[in-house]
Every structure is written in C-alpha cells, then in structure tokens.
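Re: that chain you flagged

S.,

Sorry for the slow reply, it's been a week of failed gels. I finally had a moment to sit down with the sequence you sent. For the record, here it is as I used it:
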Amino acid sequence: MIVSGIATVHAPTIALSRPSGDGISAIYDSFELLREEFDTTKPDLVIVLTTEHIVNIQRTLVPSFCVGMGEYHEIVREFDLPADKTIPGAAEPARDLVEYAFANEFDVAHSAHIKLDHGTVIPLHYIVPDFGTPVMPVIFNTVFPPLPSLRRSYEFGQLIGRFIADRLPDKRVAIIATGGLVHAVGQVPRPLDYSFDERFIMALRENDLDGIMSMKQSELDALGNGTNEIRCWLALAGALGPSWKPVVVTQESGNGPHMGMYQMKWEKAA
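Prediction finished late last night. Pasting the structure tokens below so you have them in one place:
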C-alpha cells in the first residue's frame, strides 16, 4: 500500500550539506520536514519517479520509461555525490512491476544496471539519508525527443498505483517524484515564463490536470527543456489518485534563467 507521496526539485545547486548564513533557501528546512514525513510513515520500499541527464539513456537507445531491476544501484561521480556508496535495489518488486505493465498493455524497458545521478541521489540523500530503504528507480525520458506525452506519463503513474494496490498490498510504499518545473538545461539563457509554475501547482492542488496534459510539446519547449520533468510529478499524481491531497511544502519562484524551488507532499484524505 502507498503510505507517502512526495515531489521535489533535484537541482544540482542544492548542496549535500546545508550551507550556513542568512538568506539560505527554505528548501533545506523543507527537506527536513519531508524526511520526518518519510520516517513517520516507515516505508519499506521507495519508488522514485525520476529523470536523468544522459547517463543511462543515450541517443543510441531511448526508452520512454525504464524500470531499474538491479539488486543495487551505483551513484554517478558528479557534484560531490557519494559515488563510493551504492543504493539498495528492489529487484523482485521491480520485475513484478514490469511484468504487470506488460500484462496491462504498457510496454516499459528495464535494466539490471542503473546508475543514479543527482536527479535521484540529491532527494534521496535528504529524505532517506542512510540509503537504508530499498529503492526502485523508474526513469522517464525527458531529454531525447520524441518524448512520452504528458497524459501517457500520468497513465503510467496510474498503472503504478494499481500495481501497488494489486501486487504489494502488504508493503509500505513511498513514492518520490523528482524534477524541476520551469527551467532550461544546456540552453542559451533566456527569459522564462515562471508563471507556469503556479499554474501547474494549482492544477495539482485542484486535481484538474486535463489542461496541463493537453499541452503540446512545443508549448513545453517554450518553457525550457527542463520543464519536461513535470512528467514525474504527473505520474505521482496519477499513482496516488484523487483520494490523496497535495500540500505545498516549498514554493520559491524562479529568477532569471534559473528555476523555482518547489516541493509538495500528498496527504491521504480522511
């Protein structure tokens, strides 16, 4: 059963140890709150809906979605990540998820050897700091067009929610979605329309996502290529369904060519 739902940015500018001084982003306070949420719900499996940055997915082979089925996951050596450590995997439930997807007309890729970059490791570092809970990474292609549609990403999340209910009723499952909202990576800096961030957050809060999911890829492209990462947030909303209500934990608007810092958690409706 699902016991926790969390969505958070994973910007590499987030330090692995909290900086000191005045004016430090509220994101570090919020990560502490999210860790407390995680600890309180005592999950024994973490499913991370995540993106990556040309580590596992290359132009030579581009799946829409890839489930990590390894016994453990290596950490990429970048941004001071603890590359000497590994993160425990969840091979058996990951295989079950892939088979469940196949049986329900959803073809996904799978890999027994996934390397995790900052997009996954930074959130886990703060929310599961001892890396003590098995992790099933589910990677979304948000880099190499053509990309899975927003609606298809949401539907994949719905399938994951059904899988947990059908196949993992006795496991306590936390789902973490990672990725930014409006931002650009590796592109010439230009003014970005950060007003979309609030529109997207409001759509999640009101469970009114049709307008978002109907957006054309060209509209997303105009918001910066990093905005494609909202697919993970949509999939989380799909997995949880309307009986879970999102609450904003951090909401810091973007500035210039950078990005906003947003985090949410979902609470089970009474």
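What I noticed first: Residues 158 and 238 are 4 Å apart (CA to CA).

Talk soon,
D.
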